[in-house]
């Protein structure tokens, strides 16, 4: 998907070469977009490309990010940086030492609707910000095999919402209270995870943020963000594929909201690459490595809160 | 309904006495609201009431209006004034001669949504007005016995829309083109009437108005008004009884729009009486007898247009 | 307001007499609706009325309820029953001993939109209920003098939401986590109260409920309820006074949502009296005295949670 | 735009070569998408491409279509086919003689919202179709130089709506009544054209269609389609770029609707090429050459109706 977007929609970026641990997958992408296939990661790191996009499985992120930093490459890094805070700190150190620009792949910041909420908050149109509400529900749970290696719902799903909370409030999370439950599928509970959660966050600037998550909203991929302040409120409601209404004796029927995350967030994926291209030119990336670290801290605090039944300060969480 | 509204919701108005050709009906109303029952119309006309409300069957309107005018009473007169233009002119003459204030019962002008559209047009918020669109559809056709004495759909249903067109544009109708059809129920066609129609009106100030009517919109009482001008557009959409949405795998379901005209236009009925009370005090009625005449002229022109297959000037219509 | 509604809109109920500590206020009501004015409370309790409506200031509720119970009257009792749990228990004991029917004035249960959400949950249309979200924000804070005697925001404002949470989930609240803040007006903080809050509730049936409150939503009286379950979601969105949209070069403008609680909840106030009338006949009241007690327990738990920075079990709260 | 869409989004189609009377324009496209530039039209017609896309100025359509038909190529032909009915008939004859598949570029049929309305009508979900309403307003008028060669508003703008009317009703237009006006810009009137119009169409199957057009809707590109039948109504409302609402003391503000036709109809342009690719494979094109002829007949009838002040049968219009 990223390779397609870069090739087709982003002026100023081109894919020089692609590497995948499964050579066939890499070859398929190379054939489709007409680029080289690298035999090794080193081949890419030692080439003269300006930037590398690290979109591999989470456990490989830090090694690759460190390698890229040492090679002096600009970096696009998919979230989460890592499920291990010490590892994240290793990446932070390497990137800061190298001084290379990096953008973390929190694509939702680039969704036009959510971005308009953040803009309303940041511009002062909402006055002083008091409360943020984030609802983020998947249409259906992933396979249990995925759940087992996901790092748990707080680090797999909520991590996006921790980022959104920081984005909209423009302020760090200092406390997390989380209630998790296993309501969707007992197998998820048996795998040691939860599938339903509500969280309350306190930010440094006194704003309160509410988040809820579910692994299964049968009506679609439910993604809403609301910001409330002294001068008003902005809400990013769920968009619809089209605006046709059907009126019958049974009432008015609207189109279902989007079901797939790619469908829902298409524009955000394009926009994050446009921002990356712009950042390469301007030297000013919108989502630095610290934006990859803070959500993981919040995720770890959330799990601790859920397990211990008390609010947890993010300052309690250390590598 | 009117007696209830006056009694319960309109300060400054009270029902002194009620008359109905069916004494039992009158008595029931008198008992409910605690007023007198008049034995005869004369009893009311010769009493010291300030105003009379003529809400009887259409064929009695003119005689009663003339009697009220001659008795010097202020008048509330239900629409249509009459189905016969010469009769309307007789009422006009009597009322003008007596100089009594009169308000015609075109309640829809007092609907908050439609009134907001008119206000947007009249205030200049829409700039110069270019086009008006009115959709007005009943949930179900009346009994055939009613159809037979209704004066035809243009004078029974569209008459409201002719008034709305004059209200929103603030300009007289000079030409009518009407296409009628019998699509809902063959029995209506056999009774000599139509049940489906589209009309294009030209106003003196060059605004064009579109109207459509149906005797049967199975999804409810569909009442919309739109005004379009050089600076924008205002639309009065159908309200809903409440704002609850149901989201399931099948999509999003909204409440049906109101089905009954009383439910849809409750506020307008109260508001027209508040306006009448205000008019009695200020001497300034919003809907004079000429507002009762013009829609009938348009209705007669519409029927002629439908029958002759050509646009008809309202100047062609004479008593 | 209640006297007006009973008189004008509720068949089967009539106001026999009214008492107020300020005789002039009582007389004004008596004059308007045409009923007696009682000189003393005893006059009412010892009369042959079927029911008494206790709509006085909170600190008088329990004494009056006990007196009414002992007089064998059916009771309509405004919320909150009391700010003191021992006092509530005294009322509970008296009412249970007398066996008289009672309805607590939690009018929002009778709002058509919120009731449709509860109905969707109770009917099984939403499947198993997982999460409830309640947003309840006032348009402007009350005077500081009111704040000072209000019992605090949790018992003054949130109490409605605790009731709504119990209503929609059909399940008792077993734990409360509350974060309060003083963001709207420093004077409220100086008066020892908060004006902004987020809460997470856990119910006996495992449903989680989120509530947020603000004393000041400048865009109007923001009242929303959402229920989410295994088969779908129902949302009661804010209604609008009418459905007219204005489209200009600046975008699309909708009418503001209602500002005053009486405007927003008009129908609910009528509906609660219709339910009371129905309950008098059927002997089946929808909101018993226990529905007056549980929200106070939750309110006390909320304050404790806010003060102690930890989730509080409602079982910790005793009279 | 078409070259981009074909290259990037349509599997199974590729652009082999591009020709433009301005060689530089053709070269720019060729460079961007990586295809050949043809020196002459013949070079394309005599090559082994399967299909040609004729997207040139209107006055060249017929010659090119005839040449393509004679060369045995499948054809994509932009609308209008021609402003001259005899010329259209020449194209019809050539295409029918050659038996080549052709798709006319009425892209709006492929808009997901409008297509859902047509689907509701065609599937029987609306019962028997009684009325169709089409509103189609541009955000701003084109330059006067364009107006002068446009063939007039009925053939330039309304032609899309005539096609939409035939698409949604599935029935030929047999009569047109049109009222045009010059309200937006006097210069348009001086150029002999109108800028504002309302039309009533009668279809062979008795459905009535209403159309309105304006050259200037300051709030955006207003494109709505409504179908009403015995079982219900479907409306394709204007979509919005995103679903964020801003609530302030001034009311609720929604995003403006799209302003540019490319923005509004992006999906339809992609979808029409997907349909063309599918038609090349299946041999079954959705929009044949007769779909290019009928709207022109309606456009000529509309102008005649506007000029003569009477409804005009399409059977009156001959080449």
Give the arrangement of secondary structure elements.
4 copies of one chain form a homotetramer.
Chain A: H1 2-9, E1 17-18, H2 23-33, E2 36-37, H3 41-45, E3 51-54, H4 61-70, E4 74-77, H5 85-98, E5 102-104, H6 112-122, E6 129-137, H7 144-149, H8 153-156, H9 158-169, E7 173-181, H10 186-190, E8 196-203, E9 208-214, E10 222-229, E11 232-236, E12 244-248, E13 251-254, H11 261-282, H12 290-308, E14 312-313
Helix pairs in contact in A: 1-11, 4-5, 5-12, 9-12
Essential attributes:
Rossmann fold, three-stranded parallel β-sheet, alpha/beta, 319 residues, Dihydrodipicolinate Reductase, domain 2, 12 helices, 2 domains, homotetramer
Description:
The structure is a homotetramer of 319-residue chains. Chain A folds into 2 domains: 2-107, 3-Layer(aba) Sandwich (Rossmann fold); 109-278 and 287-316, Dihydrodipicolinate Reductase, domain 2 (2-Layer Sandwich). Helix content of chain A is 40%, strand content 23%. Chain A has 12 helices and 14 strands. The longest helix of chain A is centred in the C-terminal third of the chain and has 22 residues, at 261-282. The first copy, chain A, is globular and about 60 Å long. Chain A starts with a helix and ends in a 6-residue tail after the last strand. The model of chain A has no long low-confidence stretch (mean pLDDT 96). Chains A and C meet through strand 6, strand 7, strand 8 and strand 9 of A and strand 6, strand 7, strand 8 and strand 9 of C.
């Amino acid at each position: 998907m990223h390779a397609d977007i870069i090739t087709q929609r982003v002026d100023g970026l081109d894919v020089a070469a692609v590497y995948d641990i499964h050579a066939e997958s890499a070859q398929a992408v190379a054939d489709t977009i007409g680029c080289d296939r690298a035999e090794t990661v080193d081949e890419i790191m030692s080439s003269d490309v300006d930037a590398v996009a690290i979109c591999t499985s989470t456990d490989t992120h830090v090694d690759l990010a460190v390698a890229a930093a040492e090679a002096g490459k600009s970096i696009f890094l998919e979230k989460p940086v890592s499920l291990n805070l010490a590892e994240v700190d290793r990446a932070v150190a390497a990137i800061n030492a190298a001084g290379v620009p990096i953008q973390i792949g929190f694509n939702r910041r680039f969704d036009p609707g959510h971005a308009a909420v953040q803009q309303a908050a940041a511009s002062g149109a909402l006055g002083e910000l008091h409360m943020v509400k984030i609802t983020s529900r998947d249409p259906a749970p992933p396979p249990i095999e995925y759940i087992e290696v996901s790092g748990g719902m707080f680090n797999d799903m909520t991590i996006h919402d921790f980022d959104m909370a920081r984005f909209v409030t423009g302020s760090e999370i200092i406390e997390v209270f989380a209630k998790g439950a296993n309501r969707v599928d007992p197998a998820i509970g048996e795998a040691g995870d939860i599938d339903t959660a509500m969280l309350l966050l306190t930010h440094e600037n006194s704003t309160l943020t509410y988040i809820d998550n579910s692994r299964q909203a049968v009506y679609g991929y439910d993604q809403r963000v609301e910001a409330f302040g002294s001068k008003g409120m902005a809400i990013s409601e769920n968009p619809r594929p089209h605006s046709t209404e059907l009126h019958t004796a049974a009432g008015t029927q609207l189109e279902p909201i989007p079901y797939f995350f790619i469908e829902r967030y298409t524009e955000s994926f394009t926009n994050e690459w446009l921002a990356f291209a712009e950042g390469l030119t301007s030297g000013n990336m919108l989502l630095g490595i610290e934006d990859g670290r803070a959500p993981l801290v919040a995720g770890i605090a959330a799990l601790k809160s859920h397990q211990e039944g008390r609010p947890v300060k993010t300052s309690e969480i250390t590598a």
